[in-house]
Amino acid sequence: MDDAGGPQRKPHYDYGYDGVEFSPAEAGAQPDAVLKPPRRRLFTLRRVLIGLAVAVGLFALLVGWLSWRLPVSRALDPLPSPALVLVSADGHPFARRGALKDRPVVVEELPAHVPAAFVAIEDRRFYRHFGIDLVGIGRAMATNLRERGIRQGGSTLTQQLAKTAFLSPERTVRRKLQEVFIAIWLEARLTKQEILSRYLSSVYFGDGVFGLRAASLHYFAKPPEKLSVGEAAMLAGLVKAPSKLNPADHPQAALKRQRVVLAAMVETKAITDAQAQRARRVRIRTAEPLPVGGYFADWAAPQLKQALDPQYGRMQVRTTLDSRLQRRAERAVRYWLDGQGRRQGATQAGLVAMRPDGAVVAMVGGRDYDQSQFNRAVQAKRQPGSAFKLFVYLAALRDGARPDSLVSEAPITVGGWTPRNFERTSGGLMTLEDAFAQSSNIAAVRVAETVGRDKVIEAAQELGVASPLVRDATLPLGTSEMTLIELTSAYAGVAAGHAPVQPYALLDGHQPLQAPRALPSEQRMALLELLSAAVRNGTAHAAYVGQPVFGKTGTTQDHRDAVFVGFTGDIIVGVWVGNDDHSPMQGVTGGGLPAQIWRTFVASGLDAGLVERVRPPPPPPAPPPELEERGLPGFLRRAWEGLFGA
Hints:
5-stranded antiparallel β-sheet
């Protein structure tokens, strides 16, 4: 207790630099101890300064990173994949690919009511906030709480620009924080007019259109500098839900939304009531829409993307497709599938037609693209059946055989497997030409075993087959799967006289990936003789169109796949018929539906002058009668035919 009777207080002590504790009296005797700052306070101050320096450094690094990774001009750049209009070789647009974005707009060059429409409906406080509208966020939260759901958003135009130009569309807290930070950064780097220009140049307006200029041209066929009040209000209204408010597809919804925008413009004093009333009626002037897909367009898209650089606007690209042949191909497929195909349990077909250099002029990937976009001409891998025998006999010709060489059709067993012919008895000898024309399975296996399977695979690969090929005894019967366009390209190599032939879609600037090699003339002529025999008096006789046709049929086990590939004049066509679930058809062979589709398509092309007409070669002169009289008809006849042809 002290003198006053209260509790006794503990004397106050201070600390000096050396950490020694002083009483008040001792402190008075050592003035330095009370004049110098305490050691703990200095340590705390030092940590604060270091922390500030680190924070400033990190901020500087972050700003530098943003400047490098987030260039402010990104919103003005063209889209990575330009909008394309695919045009046929005969000059008809038939498909469009990619989104459309045109040149940027400059707000100062637009009528005042155009930017005013977007500001009125999207961000009324745009000119008064710093990228984040705290007032707007509070108002949106209050409205959403009152309505018990998300009815309003608090994003500013700057935040929308940050999201569309720099961020992914994911809805996460992290992405929202990034959006806020980038919005503040944009406000520090750009003026309000520059921000608004970038926003208008990049925002999505539905129907695959980005940016105000592209939208103005797309919906109203005029530049944005000439938009009326009503047109500007309608475009501003699209931003909320571009797909649902697209005036081309949803005109009533677009008009209803336009009136909301006009009312907002009146409230913000951008226009008067009278102007809003006059602006209600607008006229949509979109061009006739082109389909965004199609079997040929889908197949051609990767080639076009590799060949073209990003640019503004819509680019027309000339392709190899011939719209006249394409229509005829679609009609031929539909006609036979709907008729005989329906009766024989065939539900799908694929067709690809090309010129000898690989230019694809027609492609049908299925019965109906709207129902199935799977392209059976280029995506489906199916067994070619006996159409693969082209490579077997090419290997034999390279091994020294000739079309009149003999092969046995006596039964053969290889590795415990015995091949059988389709609907014909076996036995005896036959020429390679007859074996090929009649599609003898036994003869094909014997030939392949004689020349070697590796030689057969080598022949197929040199003609352009890239799919893996089985090396077992069933190889010559076409048990390895490949695409129809792959098989057709191999036959095109025979037609062209060089291989591989690489199919292509881009008319201008096509560069083959691999230099073709010429086929030896003797081998090519022998192949033509075999392929012609298959049509003249073999399994492909249904494909004859009144001029020389060279081709081969193919049918797989249980009639699951049926193929015919052939060429005449300046066109090579492959046709496949089957079912997507690999279910058997009812007796469909390569010489049936596929050959009939082939003949219908090619004959219509010949009639229209779209396929080259070829005059059949004149028959060889008859041998002189004295050859028969001398008793050497066989030897001399072969010599005569060797000189003048069979």
